Every structure is written in structure tokens, then in C-alpha cells.
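Purpose: get a first structural picture of the assembly so the mutagenesis plan has something to point at.
Setup: two entries, given in the order below. No constraints added.
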Amino acid sequence: MNCQRVRDDIKAYIDGELSVLARWQVARHLESCDACRQEEIAMTKLTEKLSDTEQTPAPEGLRDRVMSELEFEKPVQKARSWTTHPAVQFLTVGAIVAILAAIVAPTFYSAKQRSSVVARQAVLRHPQYGGIPVRPMSPPAMPAEAPARENAGESYPTPRDEQPAASQMPLMIIKTAEIQIEVKRFRQVYDEAVVIAGSVGGYVTDSSAEKMGDGQYGTVTMRVPANSFDRVLDRLGRLGKIESKKITGEDVTGEVVDLEARLRNKRAEERQYLEIMNRAKRIPDIMAVSNELYRVRGEIEEAQGRLKYLRSAVSMSTINVALNEKGTRRPDEGPSLLNTLSNAANSLVDTARTLARIAIWLIVYSPFWAIPIGIWVVIRRRSAAR
Amino acid sequence: MSARTMTVMVDCSDERKLVRDLRAGRREAFEEFLDLYEQRVYNLACRMVSRQDAEDVAQEALVEICRSVGGFRGQSTLSTWVYRVATNVCLQHRRRRPAETVPLDDAQSDPHDDPSEAAARNQTAADVDHAVRTLPEMYRDVVVLHEMHGLTYSECAAALGCPVGTVKSRLSEAFRKLRELLRDYASEGGVAL
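Result (C-alpha cells, whole complex):
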């Protein structure tokens, strides 16, 4: 730290208004710089002089004049803030009820949703597909807890070294494709799509199949190495007649560069704190630095996790394949008028059943929402009476 | 009374009771409030505006605080809120009046002071007081609030309506200027700091 920067901070250092790191940096500089130490001594003396300044007693008559302008025994209305407005409170309660309903509502499946879930599970469990690994996308790594400091004499463990950031960043694109294919034989093409994924070192993450009229409709979601992306799309396209194809690329190069820069800075910050920790002697200083180390280590783990996720997403592209057996009406195609009437009527019945179930759940859970509302009403009445 | 003893530690529950009683309009509560804050607000006004106007500004500030106690939501201490309102009244008064240079007599003699006591007073303290009053307003305000009234940086920032970083840099600069001013006094025969 140079003298000019330290002198800008000396006053805040004397007043105890610097962060732990800044205070340590200033203290270390003062140990070795006579000029700045003299400045600190002079500032401290001036601070003491100013705080010892004599205060003037208030003049006679000021109190009487103030009291004469005030009115007594007339309650001063407490200013109403926006949070006490009735409309805001009503909306808050309504939002809580809506959230409760949203939490319990998804537990009710329609018959149609249940059948497609059963079909999906059946496909995944089928031994025919056992040769191809079916596993979900790996989530980002959870941040590990920083180890606790055991005793004052022990050095804090140093972080392990990681690969340095590339000086020149190649483009990093997350590729995703959605392709819809009309096929003659659903089951055969379905199997071939799964084999194509496996043949390039990819894997299926999700699949479903359901009966639609006289035919079948199904989807396969696969992850394939990015360098095989175009080849796999080409082979899938030859399985039938392509009805639609959409390819998107998300450029995450900037985010990766930012994350790597942030990681470098956070590691440098951690190294400084470790240095402080090795020199700290007092328990309060050790505790303060420990807290900062936990925070920085948490931020490092978070950035590492996000970086790992992005690199994984870039290296393995995602392809969503929808297979539609010829003659089958796709879910997004409009049904006939009679079917529309039938579906609408069924939907009405399902909705009524769902609402009835929600009402039953709300009644059963009423102690959890009726009591807070009751308390709120009582408080409101008392405030109004006051 | 020195500035250090002006930072009165009021128990939280006492403070809540005082605020409740002030809102209820009880005379005794206003008396108690003035016991705690009258001198502090007056001294703040003495340093932020000219001596001639200090009494009027202090009266205006105290009345404003007492009337607007309904707006105190308890999100800070009562002391912080009082200083915020009082500082605001002083700043408004300054905006209404044109910028004034500090006359020598105004800085060095207190109209309430006995001349014999002024003579006996420590010259260094007078030099320091004069140096503070000759600072530009934005530096003087932070010095008065932080050094003489014991507010923290964040409390000063809340009272002045500026960021904490601005308070820090202004205080640093104010002290640099004060040291230069006092060095001049030292060279004229005063005591160096």
C-alpha cells in the first residue's frame, strides 16, 4: 500500500471504520513508515482535541419558547406506512393463500398426465434400453464447507491449485436442437434414435411415449458430445421426414471469462486473508478473519460450480427429438370439434374436482392460515379503536 | 460538558416509552426529551449556522422534531433520527440564507461567555474551534457531527443524505485542512497539533 492511499484511510483507521482487510493493510504500513505514523499520531491528537471541545449550554428561554409552540395531550398520529394500508395487507394475505394453493394443487394429477408418466417410466425401465445408460444431467457441484480453524498456532490450509485461465478464450457455445420427425414405424425409429446417441458417446436423459389415436407419439432428449452434434442431427434426420428443426446456440464465453477472472480475484483475496490469519494473534481478529475466509471460500466454490456446469453444458449438446407416427394427430394439432367439446367437458369436470380438493385441503389446513388472519383482524380493530 | 459525554446511552425500552409518551402528547415526555436533546441540538445549530441564528434554528429544529415524532418508525435510534431532522433544518436554513464568511469576532467570542472566562480558556481549544468554523461547510458538517456529536460514519451519512464513502473522504480532507490551519496558528505562536 502506498503512502497516499494510507493517508486517505488514516482517519477512518483511527475511527475504527475500515474493513478487517483494510485495517490490517494500514496497520502493516504504519509499522514500517515513519512519516505515516507521525501523521497518524497527529490525527489522533486532533481527534481527541475535537471530541473534548466544550459545549455551550442552551440559552435561557429556549425551552419555554419551544414548549409554547407545542400542543399537549393531543395524540400525535403515527404516520401510516404503505405496509399498513388495508389493500396491501389484503393482497398479502391473498398472496399467501394463493401460494399455499399452488403448493398443494400439483399433487393432483389428471388421468391423462398419470398415463404418460407411467408410460415414460415403463420405457425407461424396459430392458431393451438397458444397454444405453439413462442418467440425468449432473447438477453443479455444491460448495464444500471451509475447514474450521483448530488452534491459533496452526496454519490455515492453502487452497489447491487449479488450471490457470486461458489468455485467449475460444468461443464457448451451448448448443440445443429441437427436431420433429414423422416416421412410419414409431417403435423401430425410437430404438434407432437411442442407439445413435450411444454410438457417439452420448446418452438419453429423458424419454416418453404415448398412444395417440391409432398411432404413437414420443419424445427422446439426448446429450451428445458437441463435436458430434451436426453428425447426430444428420443421422436423426434420415430416420424419417423432418417436419421441423430448430437449432439454438447460447454464447457463454463472456460469462466464463468473467467467472474465471472472478475466481482469480477471489483466490488472491483468500491468500491475503490467509496471510493475515497466520499473523493474527488476538481471538477477535482471528474470528473476524475466519468469517471473511468462510465467505470468500463459499464464493470461490460457487463460481467453480457454475464454471463446471457451463463447461459441461458446452461439451455436451442437447437434442430434443419428437417422433410422430404417420397418421397420428400430434398433441399440438387442433382436435376435431366433437373432440374439442368432449375435452372441454372433461376439463370442466377435472377443474371442478381439483377446486373441490383444494377447498378440502384449505379447510384441513385452516389453522395455519385462519389464525394469522384472525390475529391480523384483531390487531386492526385495536389500532382503529386507538 | 464535552462532546464525549454528550453521547447519552438511552436504554431501548426507555426510548420506546419516551416515543410512545411523546406521541400521546404528554407534557412530561416533552420535558424529558428537551432535557436529553435541547443542548445537543443547540450546539449543532451553533456550529452549522451563524451564532446569531443558532438560537432560532435550534428552536425551529426542536419544534419540528417534537411535531414530527409520529414519523419516527424506530428503524434507527431516536438519537440518529433527531440528528437527521436537526441537520436537515440547519441545511434548509443555510439554503435560505446566502453563504456567510465567519467573522473573527463570531468565531472567537461566545455571546454567552463571560469575558474573564474567555481569557482564562485554553488558547488551543479556541484555535481548534476557530479552525473548524473556517472550514468550508461540507467539511465542517461532518467534523461537527462525527467529532463533536459522536455520530458514526453511517449515522453522519444518514443525517447528511450522502453515501458513507463521501463522509469518509470529507472527514479525511477536513482533517488535512484543519492540520494546515492549525500549523499556521502554531507558527503564529499557538500550540502545534
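Residues 1-9, 101-110, 189-193 of chain B have pLDDT under 50 and may be disordered.
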